[in-house]
Design brief:
Blueprint: H1 2-19, E1 51-58, E2 66-73, E3 77-84, E4 91-96, E5 101-103, E6 113-117, E7 120-125, E8 137-140, E9 148-154, E10 161-168, H2 192-204, H3 223-228, E11 259-266, E12 276-278, E13 280-286, E14 309-311, E15 319-322, E16 335-338, E17 341-347, E18 350-353, E19 368-371, E20 378-381, E21 394-398, E22 401-404, E23 410-411, E24 425-429, E25 434-439, E26 452-456, E27 459-464, E28 482-486, E29 493-498, E30 510-514, E31 517-522, E32 527-530, E33 544-548, E34 555-558, E35 571-574, E36 577-580, E37 599-602, H4 622-627, H5 634-639, H6 641-657
Antiparallel strand pairs: 1-10, 2-9, 3-8, 3-10, 4-5, 4-9, 6-7, 7-8, 11-13, 12-14, 15-17, 16-19, 17-18, 20-22, 21-24, 22-23, 25-27, 26-28, 29-31, 30-33, 31-32, 34-36, 35-37
Length: 658
């Protein structure tokens, strides 16, 4: 009696204090004036160490199309975030460990929205704005009640998938149940022994009028009551009533036995089709008249808990589920965009993809549409053609061509269609030119540093750009290309002397030529051969050069022979033969009759058995062992080793000859 009175008095005072401005707050531990709060792990007064944050990035390079597992979300995970690093043509998918598809399963792409799975609600996002670079994502608060697997539907290179979730520790709490209440713990500080004494007192004074709470049925713990009335244990307070406490609140009216709870209908079904849910409605009524009475007339602890009942279990009509339009196929001008249209049917709060014929009563929306984001830029010719680059003959002329946007600005050529670009350069023919001999100036140096030499110039017959000259052609009077010169007599000059080039090393294809290069001293009428070091201050002419007489055409090339397949008794060896052209490319122009052999025999000699010095006959009559065919036994094979080995070699040679 005293304990119940004390608890009611304290609750009344606590309510008054909380309602009074400037009153002390209640911490998450339900103590008045406590400053403890719940940390990110859900621990009252915790230091954020009661949980573990698991995160990473899935960057595997995928080769095959289809579903690839990204990460496993364990049971009990919270704060789940699965996000693509940036937008791609891939899709994220979610499936339970039992194989049930939650999002984007069975090659069907779901629309962005909320999907229930694993005991929590997942928010599926897929940004579709052209300017957006954000990828798909799954978000959920958790906790999950089973293991879930995240997959990627791979269609293009993986941009990377970031995943993160929180695993609660052993000292973390569930946000629905305070940490100090556990199953079997008394409610409102009322000990189990005191509750039993109250129930016994109720049995004794069932017909007496009491002003206390002992006549009530024992309280039952619910999550609602746990949030409304914080727990207080008796040992936290003084057993005597403080003088500062206000009087207890008035007691509720006596609950008579003339009223009880009765079901009066049900709530409205949560859905009109596809299996919804509804709950029974219980009201307090008079036992005899069944007239509805205030709920205070009935025992609240005896009120039945409404249980969910299925309703409208017939399937909903199938409908066309319209996806979002894809990006326009072109950034400017007329393009195409696509969207996914699926026939779906809702049942048990889940939208399922069904056969298209179930939606035949509805007109199917279009899956493709034309689109135009902006008017494309166009080519503009800004200038006329320039004059031809030559006065006669064939030259070139140019003009200015620019890519201009729809507002008149000059932009990069890539903004316009390169296939439609007008030519900005073309050839021009100014008519035939007259022909004449064109000469260069004589060379300044004589070909010989001493003695007789020549000076040279270039002579060429070509068109003259001055068409007014009365010239018909170059004619046969070709001007001289060399003229004699003499830098004086040579006296003891050292120089390199070169001989004539030898013939090319091969008759066709690329070869080499050699020549003799010696160091000499030139006198008036003689040459003296010197050591090459005497001419080291001069650049030495090359003594070898490449030569190419004519193309050889395709020829047969072969590799070296391989090792023989056997060391005796006849084996074979092989080599690879290819027909190659002059540039060492494969060809089919070689004469097949000249093709070298690709396989030949080798090592035809008989095999000579190796003589084992330890293999001897230990008995004089081993021929009897051989005749009796006892060599198959290890004892005789060892005792008559030489005889048994000879017989075995003869049998092996006989089999090979066959």
């Amino acid at each position: 009696m005293f304990v119940s009175y004390l608890i009611l008095t304290f609750l009344h005072v606590q309510t008054a204090v909380l309602a009074r401005p400037g009153g002390e707050n209640i911490g998450c531990d339900d103590y008045l004036g406590s400053d403890k709060v719940v940390d990110k792990c859900g621990v009252c007064g915790g230091d954020n160490t009661g949980c573990q944050v698991v995160s990473g990035v899935f960057k595997h390079a995928l080769t095959s199309l289809g579903y690839h597992r990204v990460v496993e979300i364990p049971q009990g995970a919270t704060k789940i975030n699965i996000t693509e690093m940036y937008k791609s043509n891939n899709y994220l998918a979610l499936r339970s460990r039992s194989g049930r598809s939650i999002i984007n399963g069975n090659w069907a792409i779901d629309r962005p929205g909320k999907y229930e799975g694993g005991g929590t609600m997942f928010t599926y996002k897929r940004p579709n704005e052209i300017s957006s670079t954000a990828g798909e994502s799954f978000l959920a608060e958790g906790p999950t009640n089973e293991i879930l697997d995240v997959y990627m539907i791979h269609q293009q290179p993986n941009p990377g998938v970031h995943y993160e979730y929180v695993i609660m520790g052993t000292n973390a709490i569930s946000p629905q149940v305070p940490p100090h209440r556990r199953p079997g713990e008394p409610f409102n500080g009322q000990l189990e022994t005191e509750r039993r004494s109250q129930e016994e007192g109720e049995a004794k004074g069932r017909n007496e009028k009491k002003e206390d709470l002992r006549g009530e049925a024992p309280e039952t713990f619910t999550s609602e009551s746990a949030q409304t009335f914080p727990v207080r244990h008796p040992d936290r307070f003084s057993p005597r009533r403080p003088d500062t406490l206000v009087p207890p609140a008035p007691q509720p009216p006596r609950r008579s036995r003339d009223h009880n709870w009765k079901q009066l209908g049900t709530t409205e079904c949560s859905t009109t089709c596809g299996k919804g849910s509804q709950y029974p409605i219980f009201r307090c009524v008079h036992r005899s008249t069944h007239e509805e009475a205030p709920e205070s007339y009935c025992d609240s602890s005896m009120k039945p808990s409404p249980e969910e009942e299925p309703c409208n279990i017939f399937p909903c009509p199938a409908f066309w589920d319209i996806g979002e339009w894809s990006e326009c196929s072109k950034t400017c001008g007329l393009g195409m965009q696509h969207r996914q249209v699926l026939c779906r049917q809702v049942y048990a709060n889940r939208s399922l993809t069904v056969q298209p014929y179930r939606c035949q009563h509805l007109e199917k929306p279009e899956t493709t549409s034309t689109c135009q984001l902006k008017i494309c830029s166009e080519w503009q010719i800004r200038t006329d053609w320039t004059s031809c680059s030559v006065p006669c003959g064939v030259g070139q002329r140019t003009r200015d061509v620019k890519c201009v946007s729809n507002i008149g600005d000059v932009v990069d050529d890539e903004e316009c269609n390169m296939k439609l670009r007008p030519n900005d350069i073309e050839n021009c023919d100014m008519g035939p030119c007259a022909k004449s001999w064109f000469l260069t100036e004589w060379s300044e140096r004589c070909s010989a540093e001493c003695g007789a030499g020549v000076r040279t110039r270039s002579v060429v017959c070509m068109t003259n750009h001055v068409s007014s000259l009365p010239l018909e052609g170059c004619g046969n009077n070709r001007p001289a290309e060399a003229t004699p010169c003499d830098n004086g007599p040579c006296t003891g000059k050292v120089e390199w002397f070169t001989g004539s080039w030898s013939q090319c090393s091969i008759e066709c294809g690329s070869g080499t030529q050699q020549r003799e290069v010696i160091c000499v001293r030139k006198n008036a009428d003689t040459f003296e051969v010197l050591d090459p070091s005497e001419c080291s201050f001069l650049e030495k002419p090359p003594s070898q050069q490449s030569c190419h007489l004519k193309p050889c055409g395709a020829k047969w090339f072969s590799t070296e022979w391989s090792m023989c397949s056997k060391s005796c008794q006849g084996g074979f060896r092989v080599r690879e033969v290819r027909c190659l052209s002059d540039d060492m490319a494969l060809s089919n122009l070689c004469d097949p009759q000249l093709k070298p052999e690709e396989r030949e025999s080798c090592n035809p000699q008989d095999c000579v058995p190796e003589v084992d010095e330890n293999c001897k006959d230990k008995y004089y009559n081993c021929n009897v062992v051989v005749q009796a065919r006892l060599c198959v036994y290890n004892y005789y094979k060892t005792a008559c080793c030489a005889s048994c080995t000879r017989v075995a070699n003869r049998q092996t040679g006989f089999l090979r000859s066959r």
